[in-house]
Automatic annotation (TrEMBL):
<feature type="binding site">
    <location>
        <position position="169"/>
    </location>
    <ligand>
        <name>substrate</name>
    </ligand>
</feature>
<dbReference type="GO" id="GO:0006543">
    <property type="term" value="P:L-glutamine catabolic process"/>
</dbReference>
<comment type="subunit">
    <text>Homotetramer.</text>
</comment>
<feature type="binding site">
    <location>
        <position position="263"/>
    </location>
    <ligand>
        <name>substrate</name>
    </ligand>
</feature>
<keyword id="KW-0007">Acetylation</keyword>
<dbReference type="InterPro" id="IPR015868">
    <property type="entry name" value="Glutaminase"/>
</dbReference>
<protein>
    <recommendedName>
        <fullName>Glutaminase</fullName>
        <ecNumber>3.5.1.2</ecNumber>
    </recommendedName>
</protein>
<feature type="binding site">
    <location>
        <position position="162"/>
    </location>
    <ligand>
        <name>substrate</name>
    </ligand>
</feature>
<dbReference type="GO" id="GO:0004359">
    <property type="term" value="F:glutaminase activity"/>
</dbReference>
<dbReference type="InterPro" id="IPR012338">
    <property type="entry name" value="Beta-lactam/transpept-like"/>
</dbReference>
<feature type="binding site">
    <location>
        <position position="65"/>
    </location>
    <ligand>
        <name>substrate</name>
    </ligand>
</feature>
<feature type="binding site">
    <location>
        <position position="193"/>
    </location>
    <ligand>
        <name>substrate</name>
    </ligand>
</feature>
<keyword id="KW-0378">Hydrolase</keyword>
<feature type="binding site">
    <location>
        <position position="117"/>
    </location>
    <ligand>
        <name>substrate</name>
    </ligand>
</feature>
<dbReference type="Pfam" id="PF04960">
    <property type="entry name" value="Glutaminase"/>
</dbReference>
<comment type="similarity">
    <text>Belongs to the glutaminase family.</text>
</comment>
<dbReference type="GO" id="GO:0006537">
    <property type="term" value="P:glutamate biosynthetic process"/>
</dbReference>
Amino acid sequence: MPCQSSEELKALVEEARKCTKNGRVADYIPALGKANPNELSIAIYYPDGRCISAGDIEEKITLQSISKVISLALVLMDRGPDYVFERVGMEPTGDPFNSIAKLETTTPAKPLNPMINAGALVVTHMIKGNTVEERFQRLLSFVQEMANDSTVSYCEEVARSEFETANLNRALCYFLKEHKIINEDVEQLLDLYTKQCAIEMNCLSLARIGMVIGMDGVDPLTGKQVLPTDIARICKTFMVTCGMYNASGEFAIEIGIPAKSGVSGGIMGAVPGRFGIGIFGPALDEKGNSIAGIKLLELLSKNYKLSMF
Ligand code: GLU
């Protein structure tokens, strides 16, 4: 066991919380701007069912970019890697998550990976179903299965707030449509994508999903293979290479845990074969990662030797 008790975890949270004053809450999605910048909470889920936590772990957060790992897993299961990777690449970009730059210089205009917005929009486009509602329900059911929690839902206010202001993502969609990477109605795709990003849960459920990915797709508490081993492997690899935006290289060196962050301040960690981590700390650094969340992971990784490398 790396960290034995919630008490130990609380001390690390208080140490890491000092960093929140150097970060800023994302407000380009207006509803996210309401978050309390001093907030910091964490849950760790172990395969034996033990769960330790610190901070206000009942607080719900929207997944934002963390959802990109789950939508990728779903479309890989639905359509297989060949189909998916014909339409979205496997390489990190080194650019901010919402950049359009590489789409213009790459031919064909296939997004470089599924963790940047352009790539995630293509992935969401591939979710099967006849209507937005049907596609969203399939994704939501899959999230519920991974979290083993049928009450997980989405925050309508955050979804609407993003939908109304998502002009950069609209631009990415029109660019992708012009280059025939996607072919559906842009408003419809954005409706689905913003609902996906607004799926919300607490740190415990986030940690549970991290555990399932870390345990090669098996939920050790139910014995169920929630996603195939090979797809869990692909998810973990993208989390290492592209999960922490254009800070993924430094994060891999300093911390060494497959992780995915979102602009809501969430971070999901999947320590291979060991446990899952769910963090919420809405004050972000300049790259869009939870500033205190990263500090907390750094403390955990150093204190308990968690780096996989
Ligand atoms: N919904 C957000 C967007 O597309 C997700 C970005 C993120 O969490 O990195 O801008």
